[in-house]
């Protein structure tokens, strides 16, 4: 695995951890985000950091 693959894997894992640790209004929102990130690793991570984090309860 090249350096780019390692970086991608690290970002993927950090995204899942960030989603799981984030608070949401409902548990359904969290499950949906986890599924998005798992099923669409690159796109899901980008979407989470662009729009998902803003929708999580702070």
UniProtKB/TrEMBL annotation:
The residue ranges crossing the membrane are 6-24, 31-51
Name listed for the protein in its UniProt record: Cardiolipin synthase N-terminal domain-containing protein
Question: In the UniProt record, does the keyword Transmembrane helix occur?
Answer: yes
Q: Where does the record say this protein resides?
A: Cell membrane
Enumerate the spans annotated as Cardiolipin synthase N-terminal domain: 10-53
Q: Which residues form the signal peptide?
A: none
Q: Keyword set for this entry? A: Cell membrane, Membrane, Transmembrane, Transmembrane helix
Topology in the lipid bilayer is annotated as: Multi-pass membrane protein
One GO CC term, this protein: plasma membrane
């Amino acid at each position: 695995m090249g350096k780019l693959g390692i970086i991608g894997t690290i970002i993927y894992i950090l995204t899942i951890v960030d989603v799981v640790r984030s608070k949401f209004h409902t548990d359904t929102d969290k499950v949906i985000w986890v599924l998005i990130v798992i099923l669409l690793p690159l796109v899901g991570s980008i979407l989470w950091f662009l729009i998902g984090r803003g929708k999580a309860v702070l």
